[in-house]
Here is the input.
Amino acid sequence: MPENARAAADQAAGTAQNSTALRTLARTGHAVNGLLHVLIGGIAISIALSGASGGSGGGDADQSGALKTLAGTPGGIVIIWVVAVGLFALGLWTAISAFLVRESDTRRRWSKRISTAGRAIAYFAVGSTALTFALGGSQDSSQSSQGLTATLLSSPGGVFVVIVVGLVVIGIGGFFVFKGVTQKFLEDVHPPTGTTKRAVVVLGIVGWVAKGIALITVGILFLVAAATQDPEKASGMDGAISALAALPFGVVILLVVGVGLIAYGLFCGARARWGSL
Here is the structure.
């Protein structure tokens, strides 16, 4: 791209990203993302307690399950519209951030752009699911994941794509765990010092590690689906929660992960309040 055109594009992107409206909506996106994780964590805990008592059910422990929970509450559709708008705005703000990444080292620059763009895609995907619910439809995240995996497994070379997807998701999960353990998340949020900061640090450590464990489990399920040629194994976050529940001491593990996902949701709320935007 010519230098003048690049400078003009950067200026336009920077102006859009710094607009008060987009920044406010992006903060709303972090808040509603936190709300969804709190609900997912609550569903996971419900599943764990149902298993411990010999019951069944508890709902889908993923974004679609959280949205179904919201849809069943008074005024839930209004909240779902807020979720959709907030996540689309956050996705747009994050996509612009990927475009504006500046690093002198080419490898680091593109690595940061790709990871940032990946987050934008994730926000857009959940926002699309929320929009489907807001318009009166419904969507099952686990079935969507299984359907995509089935299509890939039936395509030439598709099994290798599923393996790559699994490895990428495991890598993302590992990054979440690393960011939680090393407290790198403090680069994204700047709460006031004292008790508030200590609380945010605890929420960040617990939340990022728990989210990472859940994502690693999702990635492993994609690898299992590729190895067994069974797309039903790749059932997304809900399948990961079920897989954790099936482990020895699964009830305890699932309770810990559920609490961790709630902590991650509360951290997202803190990021909406004190995050760098």
Observations:
- The chain has a mean pLDDT of 87.
- The two ends are 27 Å apart (CA to CA).
